[in-house]
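Loading example: each entry is read as four labelled lines plus one structure line.
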Amino acid sequence: MELDDRKFKILEAVIRNYLQTGEPVGSRTISKDSDMALSSATIRNEMADLEEMGYIIQPHTSAGRIPTDKGYRLYVDSILRQKEHEISRRDALIKKRENELAKIKEEYASKMDRVEEVMQAVARTLANDTNYTTMISSSVGGGHKIKFVQLSRVEQHKLLVVIVMENNIIRNKVFMISETLSDESLLKLNMMLNTTVTGLTVEELERQLVRLERENGSQPLLREVLDIIFETVRNADDVQIVTGGTTNIFKYPELCVSEIARDLITALEDKKGLSSLISPVSPDDGSIRFYIGEETPVKSMKDCSVVTATYELSDGVSGTIGIIGPKRMDYEMVVETLNNIRMRLDDLFKKS
Amino acid sequence: MELDDRKFKILEAVIRNYLQTGEPVGSRTISKDSDMALSSATIRNEMADLEEMGYIIQPHTSAGRIPTDKGYRLYVDSILRQKEHEISRRDALIKKRENELAKIKEEYASKMDRVEEVMQAVARTLANDTNYTTMISSSVGGGHKIKFVQLSRVEQHKLLVVIVMENNIIRNKVFMISETLSDESLLKLNMMLNTTVTGLTVEELERQLVRLERENGSQPLLREVLDIIFETVRNADDVQIVTGGTTNIFKYPELCVSEIARDLITALEDKKGLSSLISPVSPDDGSIRFYIGEETPVKSMKDCSVVTATYELSDGVSGTIGIIGPKRMDYEMVVETLNNIRMRLDDLFKKS
DNA sequence: GTTAGCACTCATTTGTTTTGAGTGCTAACA
DNA sequence: TGTTAGCACTCAAAACAAATGAGTGCTAAC
């Protein structure tokens, strides 16, 4: 069977309606609401076809139809295709978002060193605006350079190492050393670190490590310090994920079922699990990615849709923003929003 | 009416039973289960009295009784009173907890600089063990001393300040300066900082600030740096609260009602709100504090009980551990657990 | 190809009955 | 005087039974 234009229009109408109401939609509704001048009977025939083709389904015999994952997928793809031609609500949205972001910017300009906090703020704002749950990851894939390393003595046998990465993530670590270290040695060590380590990525650092350790094999202290730096940097280069608006899921009855809600919240707490929504970074076409229902890699989100977008900042830092909501989320709005925030995120982060 | 010994025993039996089942308990059950050789009729009479006195209540006419907040309170107080004489399950519990904590210790010994992470781990473990939701705060009331301050140049006009507090919380901040700063000036600044700032608490620092700024009034840079340090330290001295096992609330049907669950989770996300469970620090009698039902300062927890204990570490660091669960939580176990973890927490933190 | 009409389905709502756990009260008992 | 057996009573919850109505599929006519 062929999906002709009329069938598609009907499918679209069904989905649009379902997005709003969350209730199965019947032929009569479509016949009246849509601008196609067709009787309910005709619609009915078409809907039967659409069901046969797998785009919609009846929850039970005498109910209206609701979209299947396949139906959503078709709809979403079509939205994306015509997105660029649209201007619709964009103006209003942009204005709103600009205000919001200005607020974040102001409030957090002074805290830019704590990248997590900014992410947190963005996640929350975004969740507030969209009424969905959000997640933001930073630094997908690592590969950032070390900008600055410094070793200082905090107590007699206690050293502090501070590392600043180029994406302004700062890590520090206190550790004990067994031998005593003179001030000179510390100074020398610092100088050496800054000449050998600065500018390297984690991977490069790892390679460098092997070499350095071979050359200075006999210096256990140096070895120890380098190991700790490596460990710390690797840690800093980890993907960080923060979430916002977790409780927004309670706004959608279909997710309120206590079992579903519990699993969802558990999944949202488990940052490791979330990273599967990020890892398969597409070649940076900057595109937006949809996981509808069963498509998602996180099982407990099978009743949700997840929309992700990658952002890429000027200094090579990149990450992913995700929006998690019911399958009947307002995809258009979400796409707009994501596109938008992606652009502005750049400003925000560049500022520091 | 007087609450004689028999009445109390019956009340206790009712509560014990309800803690386990979560169902209203009738006179017949008590008559059979308890070791008092009394018929259900007699129990019934006593229960009628207990209800009149406000310790138990009938959810509806033909149902058994459930404890009121007042009933729980009586029960809890009595547990506390005889706690010291008991040894009951303690041995088994201690063993279990020792294992758990050993694991945390091992895993996190190397991360002790990130106090939050350790707290997080403890919270999670505790939640796992008890099946309730947990929260841990650190550094109630502030008043910690600054152990170490260091200023370094990251880029031409970008400085990094690192501050280590005596409780090993580390804070850092990157900030821009307008004027150029020579290496010497930086060195001098650092030396000055470490002589004037180290050893002060936030409050003392604030007072010091005023003085310093008067003396060196003309040095805008110094003023700027000091302000930033102050800001950062105040931030570091903030109460930090982490939670664990949020989703445990779904284990108790009476909390699963979507409205209650939503409000609870929202409350748990709102760390500021949680601090009201902490702020009224009792004169450090190290006692355990119970909030039963409506007694809690957090409205959305009116269907829960919250048990908190303060811990106090050797170096003057202190905080609060809280356990949040249904009103019918296993109070005895919770008390044991809290007493226990409080002792061990000391070890854990001292290690760093 | 479209539509009106009709019989049919079935989740949901509403009402009714049954069941049973639990009570309060009274009268008898120790 | 405190305890208990017995009985009538209450009421939530479970089970059952229409009634409702939104929505369908199919057929026959336009």
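Chain B has three domains: 5-67, 92-141+238-349, 146-235.
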